[in-house]
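ESCALATION

Customer reports they have been waiting on this structure for their group meeting. Please prioritize. Original submission:
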Amino acid sequence: MILNTGSIKFYNGFIHHSRKDGKEHFFKNKMNAIFIELRNDKFKETYKYPTLFSINKFNLLAWHSSNHGNQLNHSENQNLYQFILYLIQKSGANENKVRNIKLLTFPKVLGWGFNPLSIYFCYDTKESLLHSVFEVRNTFGDIHHYVLKNQNKNNVVQKTVKKLFVSPFYPQKGYYHLYSNQLNDKILTSVDYIINEKKVFSASMDLKEIKFNNLNILKAFMKLYLFPGKIWINIHLQAFFLWLKKIRPYKIPSSQKVKHSFGIKISKD
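Update from on-call: job pushed to the front of the queue and completed.
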């Protein structure tokens, strides 16, 4: 089976992180992201991309499907479209209403990259958002999928219990309010982390589409919006700053066997 993708859009914007529980800490980064239209097996159209971008191959900018989805099927031929439909079906929603799935993620730069958060947007025939899946990775090699279903029936913010140990500076408890939406040429996302009914951390992305061409790829690289391992390096740099502020790290728990969970209510926040 050959991985099948459709159109790919290129975005730039800012990522904001803010710690709010006593010892405050804030940073923002300018980043580039790609928005990939995943295709089902029945689609066979061929799309042309900038020469500085490749799929499952080394290039200045690249995307590898093996970094996503079902890590038990860790290959570049896994069908991400079918995997997301499987998660939607497991949530109790009707996966047959999904007609398009798009993935927001960060590309690799010169073969290096790390995706702490990727988001799958599931649309109906009218391109209205039905469901989304937050794919969260930690630097310890674990992954979890938070499935938000039936977002078209209510607010797009949903509450999920925290399942994946992400930062060693927070305990393995609490819950998230998760939000993601595509609005014309913009993509907005937010993650609020709540412990004992108090917001202790928030993160957000505010992205705007730009032309996906070699010139913009080179501009991003020259301005250091993109460089090899940028996200991974910054995660550990910010961890060092938190350590300097004498914030105590927690012990890393064992990896959980269940790799997906579901939004447990619609929030009006």
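Sent to customer with the following note: The chain has a mean pLDDT of 87.
Escalation resolved.
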